[in-house]
Amino acid sequence: MKCIFKTGKTWLPLRFLAMGMMLMGWPVQAEALDVRVHEAPVRTVLAGLARSAGINLVIDDTVDGTVTMELHDVPAEEAIRVLAGSQNLLYRTDGAIAFITAGRAHDQARSCYTWKLHHADPDSVRQAAEAMAGSGHIGYHSDTNALVLHGSAQTAAAVDRLVQSLDVPVRQVSVEIEFLSLQTDAVKDRGISWDWTAMEGGPGHRSFLYTGQLRALESKGKARVLARPHLMAQNGREAQILIGDRIPVLTEHVTDGEVSRTTEYEDAGIKLSFTPRIHEDGSVTAHIRAEVGTPILVPELKAYRITTRRADTDVCMQPGRDLLIGGLISREEINNLRKVPILADIPVLGKLFRYHYTSKKETELVILIRSRAASSSPESVR
């Protein structure tokens, strides 16, 4: 057996260090360590690491065996976790006291284990843990955001490692969105066409040309900004925006040959859903669904129907670059009345002084989206 422990420039045998500190009760400041171990008892290594970091550690009598390991410049607590994981040991904390057990003598015995989650959703962690513990043996308590397991120590050790990897701060995406309404004749006059194939490099290249033309239309009154919302979206979670209203829509139901009509309220206006996936390089892959619903009154039914235009896409977005969604054209017919005052109100003859006509109006909705991964500090879970 050979155990060497190094902090700073001092080398000491690990066994003597553990025994000496245990007898003298000297505190040692936690710092990065170099550990060289060759066929050393696991219990001795764990005790020495705990003493070096000032950790209150209880080692179960089921922990045995030897270990060979070489670690450089790692904290003592991290070395304990790595050693426990390599030996399939359960390492858990209860307040200021840590426990390590192998549970080999009680593999069939079941106990209750709990983990207080700091970041992850307990139900999603429970579903992942069921792959190890099986259904019916693990649950969660929503009021305390805790995961509860009724199982063996070996199962608890596996679940503990899973919790350590899943219970981490959730990354977020900052999303800036701009909705613009354009006059279609102005778009045609400037020769704007949403054809990305005509641009070298695809939709992620030189998109500022489109943005510049939109700003020019806005300055001339040919484009109008409808809204500029700004929101945060969690990684993998859908965020939604609705700019509009809820419109009563008449719906018919047929039951046993009888027709009944009910009024249901549906969303009309501009709806956008954004589901991000953050990558290591800071880019964001997003599933985007844009929908424009226009209510149209049906005189015969004395109710509204909603016409919908929708765009659905998955796209990779680089930090700080605009994504443009265009081509959502709205066509609206407007009934107009012109009349001669007083004369148009004369019965029968008044029709000669009234003029009804229908005008058509086309507008195009353009959506600009800019996203970036929000900075988050690496927070320790335990």
TrEMBL record:
Which positions carry the signal peptide feature in this UniProt record?
1-32
Indicate the segments forming the Type II/III secretion system secretin-like domain, all copies: 216-371
Cell location: Cell outer membrane
InterPro entries hit by this protein: Bact_Secretion_Sys_Channel, GspD/PilQ, NolW-like, T2SS/T3SS_dom
Species the sequence originates in:
Megasphaera hexanoica
Q: Name one Pfam family in it.
A: Secretin
Q: Which PANTHER family does its entry note?
A: PROBABLE GENERAL SECRETION PATHWAY PROTEIN D, TYPE IV PILIATION SYSTEM PROTEIN DR_0774-RELATED
Q: What is this protein called?
A: Type II secretion system protein GspD
Q: Where is the NolW-like domain?
A: 116-172
The record's keywords, sorted A to Z, are: Signal, Transport
Primary location recorded for the protein, binned into one broad class: membrane
Family the entry assigns: Belongs to the bacterial secretin family.
